[in-house]
Specification:
heterodimer, A: about 200 residues, alpha/beta, TIM Barrel, 9 helices, about 15% strand, B: about 675 residues, 5-stranded mixed beta sheet, globular
Chain lengths: ~200, ~675
């Protein structure tokens, strides 16, 4: 996390070997507990080469990649190849809505979703529920339709709205002006997924 | 839970029976005839008077009876914080013990001391039986023939049913409290009670559900009368119960009663009895899941002990291997032997922060190297141990305790009171408190003063003297950036391990106490997590520290037993376990758990029980000794401080026991609120 003057607020720099060393110290315990290591963020694929290097140095540890899918396709392929499980975020199916609310087109994301399916890597589709924006029946139905039949799909997970975003904006010296009502209850519409034959869980 | 049990619970909490309490007059203790009696006879007489003053109190809905009506006790105290030979007490019954006493008396007629002792034993047995007879009479008067039949039979005779076994236990346990003791532990309950339950189940006399109801009533009954039991805080009454483990021959001891107790404790949801579970690296995962479900309840139960580590450690400290395998816990967590032990496992605490602080200040003043400072710390630990043992030997006059002796092995058989060498083990134990804070302080000094040279000696000394006033940056650097125990960081963990080596060395060097026992080093803190930073008692010999080099201001708490220093950054529960796995427990056997507080949000998903079960397995597999997993919700605790009347039933783990948060004094409440909250 970076502040208004570009100063680092949170975080430490590690060399890949150093980080792998730290993670490997817990390798045995992680295995004992059917656990592993998760690469998350932010967006881990913004440091794809680094992440790949660390993964290559891990001592037989289960690896989970938690990504928005917004990354160069080659990077995506290489890192997914080395992962055991992927958490793939899906926010908005409609490209216009996606561009409006995230600032980016979702073609790259959908493309990587197809790559993920081709590769057959086990994955979980994670859908953050932003009240009135992503939790609409229309959006969820569209997402269900997109992931239905994907090889490797384990289930969909609906993530209730997390208010931490506002705090992060403020910590970075930015103003948080959401164009939705943070206090509104989300619609955790599991029915849409069940109808599509997709296992679904609300987190 | 059934309505009947809810009513019993309600009554235990509200204490309707307190209106029946009377005070005993202590006139008799002033009579010259009484005064002239030997101590052991006085003890028996006082107990007899207490039993006689007890009015039989039976509520119509009770199936397991005994309620204290005697508010105070007069006369002599008794030994406490040990574990009776409950299996023998039940299987022989008090008449059986009386027979043995009479036989020994016959043999030892010419030994006046033995005669005093044995006649005292018989007096106490008769007193308990007479009191029970009046209870039976009262049951008859209420036309409760079933209960009267039970009371006619036990505790005089061996129980014929599970119900009789529970009732027998209840009376003997309550009688011990009447004898003036404190911290009456329940020992290996699933071991000695299972045969009675099994017989009933096999004979079809009881269903599992009926057994659970009886057990629930039995457990609820331990929550009455506790306001009369002495302890440091309300709830500190030593009614600890041990489950699982191995038999004296080393075979798996888990039986169906083991998991039944876990389930019933969950249902009853009260602070007594305090559940402990022995585990090893191969303990069945399903049992660990049952235990994790109880952990989820938030009572701080069970407290876990690792057989793989502790049995060997006890044997290494001179306990017979069968006895080592038979271990249970004392009031908090200290490892003791049922029936054979008169260990006093909490004579004092060694303050590691004081040892480190003194070493740092004096080492700086003399411009010494870090190694010399560590040597000083070692010497300070040794001095504290020597003082603790010296004070204990002056202070601890074991009181003759004829009734407890009746319920221990060997005493009645050989005509010797437990306080007079009647049992096998007379060891002392010392808590080892504030170890993380001390290790953090020494590591900070090594790193910042000696290696990086970013903090000067003068500067640090001045900051400590001024309680960091005017030294905010220095405080923050020490508190936030210093190496901290709880992160699996060898730099500071090695210092932690060395401190315990010094402690073990000092206890070994202290030799034998005046009863021929050894001194056992421990890892616990008990109330010393407050007393070592804010003086607990006027005459306290354990030193109090002010500001310390780990980034701690005067009065700030140290951790509870083995825990990272309060308020510092830790990587997570696994790292905490790993840090504490580096202590050489073979040399530090007294006990004192790793204390993990999990945020109650951990338990919101179904996977949490599995994760906690695996965490317990990890704890055992990496060689730790003892573990407590508590759950906390800080918001609720803060609200309970502000509105105690709304949180009357909020239970928290204080140290080796759980209590009602609103009944604790403020420093203990604040300590709990200040603890780390971890997630899985």
């Amino acid at each position: 996390m970076v502040g208004p003057a570009g100063e680092r607020l949170v975080g430490r720099e590690y060399a890949s070997g150093e980080l792998a060393g730290i993670l490997n110290r817990q390798a045995e315990i992680l295995r004992m507990n059917d656990g592993g290591v998760t690469f998350s963020g932010g967006e881990p694929l913004m440091q794809a080469a680094f992440v790949l290097d660390v993964m290559n140095r891990l001592d037989n540890i289960h690896v989970l990649l938690d990504t928005s899918g917004y990354a160069d396709e080659d990077d995506f392929r290489m890192v997914v190849e080395k992962s055991d499980l992927v958490h793939f975020d899906l926010k908005l199916a409609d490209p216009r809505a996606h561009a409006r609310y995230t600032g980016k087109d979702n073609a790259l994301i959908l493309g990587n979703l197809r790559v993920l399916s081709e590769m057959g890597k086990p994955f979980i589709a994670r859908i953050p529920l932003v009240p009135g924006i992503t939790d609409t029946a229309e959006n969820l139905t569209a997402i269900a339709g997109t992931i239905k039949g994907s090889k490797g799909l384990l289930r969909a997970e609906l993530l209730p709205y997390n208010r931490a975003a506002g705090g992060k904006y403020r910590a970075c010296g930015m103003e948080f002006r959401p164009n939705y009502d943070e206090n509104r209850d989300v619609n955790a519409n599991t029915g849409v997924f069940r109808k599509a034959g997709i296992e679904v869980k609300v987190c | 839970m059934k309505v009947g049990l809810e009513n019993l619970k309600e009554r235990a909490r509200t204490g309707d029976f307190k209106k029946f309490r009377t005070e005993m007059s202590d006139d008799i203790t002033k009579e010259p005839a009484f005064d002239a009696m030997p101590m052991v006879r006085k003890a028996a007489r006082c107990m007899k008077l207490a039993c006689e003053a007890q009015k039989p109190l039976i509520y119509p809905d009770e199936r397991i009876v005994f309620t204290r009506t005697v508010g105070n006790l007069i006369g002599c105290a008794s030994v406490g914080n040990i574990c009776a030979a409950w299996d023998m007490a039940l299987s022989q019954g008090l008449l059986g013990r009386k027979q043995v006493a009479l036989q020994t008396l016959e043999r030892m007629r010419d030994d006046p001391k033995a005669v005093d002792f044995l006649e005292s034993c018989i007096e106490t047995i008769d007193a308990v039986l007479e009191m029970t007879a009046r209870y039976a009479e009262e049951a008859r008067r209420q036309e409760n023939e079933d209960l009267a039949t039970v009371l006619d039979h036990v505790p005089a005779n061996p129980p014929r049913t599970f119900h009789e076994a529970l009732q027998s236990f209840k009376i003997m346990h309550s009688a011990l409290w009447l004898s003036g003791t404190c911290h009456v532990t329940l020992g290996r309950f699933d071991q000695y009670m299972w045969p009675y339950l099994k017989a009933d189940l096999d004979a079809g006399l009881l269903t599992e559900a009926e057994a659970e109801e009886l057990l629930a009533e039995f457990f609820i009954s331990f929550n009455k009368d506790t306001d009369l039991y002495p302890g440091v805080q309300q709830g500190d009454n030593g009614q600890s119960l041990m489950l699982g483990g191995v038999t004296r021959e080393g075979r798996d001891a888990v039986n169906p009663l083991t998991s039944m107790v876990l389930r019933v404790s969950y249902d009853v949801n009260m602070i007594d009895p305090k559940i402990n579970l022995r585990v090893n690296k191969d303990t069945d995962l399903e049992l660990l899941r049952e235990a994790a479900r109880l952990t989820k309840r938030g009572l701080g139960f069970p407290q876990y002990a690792n057989d793989d580590v502790e049995i060997e450690a006890l044997a290494a400290h001179g306990y017979d291997i069968e006895d080592a395998r038979d271990y249970t816990v004392a009031a908090c967590w200290e490892f003791i032997i049922p029936g054979h032990g008169m260990d006093i496992p909490a004579i004092s605490a060694c303050s590691f922060p004081a040892a480190a602080d003194k070493a740092i200040r004096e080492g700086f003043a003399a411009d010494e190297s870090f190694d010399r400072i560590m040597d000083r710390a070692r010497d300070n630990v040794k001095a504290q141990v020597e003082l603790a043992v010296e004070k204990a030997e002056q202070r601890l006059e074991p009181a003759p305790s004829p009734f407890y002796s009746v319920l221990m092995y060997n005493c009645v058989e050989t005509g010797r009171d437990i306080s007079d060498g009647g049992v096998k083990y007379y060891n002392y134990g010392i808590h080892g408190s504030g170890s993380s804070n001390a290790a953090d302080a020494l590591a900070a000094v090594r790193k910042f003063v000696f290696e990086d040279k970013t903090i000067g000696r003068e500067e640090l000394l001045d900051a400590l003297d001024k309680n960091f006033d005017g030294y905010d940056d220095l405080f923050r650097k020490l508190h936030d950036e210093g190496p901290k125990v709880g992160n699996n960081d060898d730099y500071v963990d090695s210092i932690l391990a060395r401190l315990f080596d010094y402690f073990a060395d000092a206890c070994e060097a202290a030799g034998n106490n005046n009863q021929g026992g050894i001194i056992r080093a421990g890892t616990g803190s008990a109330m010393y997590y407050v007393w070592l930073v804010r003086r607990g008692r006027d005459k306290q010999t354990e030193p109090v520290v002010d500001a310390t080099a780990d980034g701690r201001r005067r009065g700030d708490f140290i951790g509870s037993s083995l825990a990272p220093s309060p308020g510092v950054r830790v990587s997570g529960p696994v790292s905490v376990l790993q840090s504490f796995s580096k202590i050489d427990y073979n040399r530090v056997c007294n006990g004192g758990p790793i204390t993990l507080e999990l945020s109650d949000t951990v338990f919101r998903d179904e996977e949490s029980v599995e994760k906690v079960a695996m965490l317990i397995k990890t704890f055992a597999r990496i060689g730790c000794q003892q573990l407590q997993i508590n759950t906390l919700n800080v918001e609720r605790l803060r609200d309970a401080k502000k509105h105690p009347e709304q949180h009357g039933n909020l239970i928290v783990r204080v140290w080796g026991w759980s209590g009602y948060f609103v009944e604790l004094d403020e420093p203990y409440q604040d300590h709990i609120i200040s603890r780390h909250m971890l997630t899985l």
